[in-house]
C-alpha cells in the first residue's frame, strides 16, 4: 500500500512539474518558445526569428540560398512590444543557435556573414 502511494505521489509531482514548465514556456510566446524550437529542429523546420520588418532587397533569393546551405530559414516578424513575446523569441532562437552550432560548427555565423557580404560586394560591383 505504501509503495502505491509513493508511486502515485511521485507521478503527481512529475505531472505538476511538467505542467509548470509547459505553462511557463507558452506564457511567453505561444508560437515561439523553447518547446516549439525543439519540435522545429526535430521536424527539420529550422528558423531564425528576426524582430522587425524585412527590408526588401534584390538579394533576398541569394541570401535565402546561403541560409538554406547553413540549415535554416530567416523569418521576419513585426516589432512586438510585449516583453513576454520577445522573451519567447529569445528562448526559441537560443535553441536554434545551439542546434546550428552543432550542425555547422561554432564559427558558422562568421562564415555565413562573410558569404552574404561577398554576394553584396559582387552585386555592388556589377551595378557600378
Folded structure, characterized:
It is a single chain. The mean pLDDT is 84. This protein has a two-stranded parallel ribbon with strand order 1-2. The chain has 128 residues and is mostly helical. Helix 1 crosses helix 4 (83-104), helix 2 (34-43) runs parallel beside helix 4 (83-104) and helix 3 packs antiparallel against helix 5. Helix 3 (60-69) links the parallel strand 1 and strand 2 (73-77). The longest helix is centred in the N-terminal third of the chain and has 27 residues, at 2-28. 70% of the residues lie in helices and 8% in strands.
The amount of helix comes to: 55-70%
What's the shape? elongated
Order of helices and strands: HHEHEHH
> How much strand content do the residues show?
5-15%
**Low-pLDDT segments, ≥5 res:** none
- End-to-end distance, in Å? 84 Å
Structural class: mainly alpha
Task: Please describe the biggest sheet, giving its number of strands, its sense, and whether it closes into a barrel.
Answer: 2 strands, parallel
Number of helical regions: 5
Record field, number of beta strands: 2
Radius of gyration of CA atoms, rounded to a whole number? 20 Å
Strands ordered across the widest β-sheet: 1-2
Average pLDDT figure: 84
Amino acid at each position: 500500500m505504501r509503495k502505491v502511494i509513493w508511486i502515485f505521489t511521485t507521478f503527481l509531482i512529475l505531472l505538476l512539474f511538467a505542467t509548470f514548465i509547459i505553462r511557463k514556456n507558452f506564457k511567453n510566446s505561444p508560437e515561439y518558445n523553447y518547446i516549439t524550437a525543439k519540435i522545429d529542429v526535430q521536424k527539420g523546420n529550422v528558423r531564425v526569428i528576426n524582430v522587425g520588418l524585412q527590408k526588401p532587397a534584390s538579394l533576398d533569393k541569394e541570401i535565402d540560398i546561403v541560409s538554406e546551405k547553413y540549415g535554416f530559414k530567416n523569418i521576419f516578424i513585426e516589432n512586438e512590444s510585449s516583453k513576454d513575446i520577445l522573451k519567447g523569441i529569445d528562448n526559441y532562437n537560443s535553441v536554434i543557435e545551439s542546434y546550428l552550432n552543432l550542425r555547422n560548427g561554432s564559427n558558422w555565423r562568421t562564415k555565413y556573414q562573410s558569404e552574404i557580404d561577398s554576394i553584396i560586394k559582387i552585386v555592388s560591383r556589377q551595378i557600378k
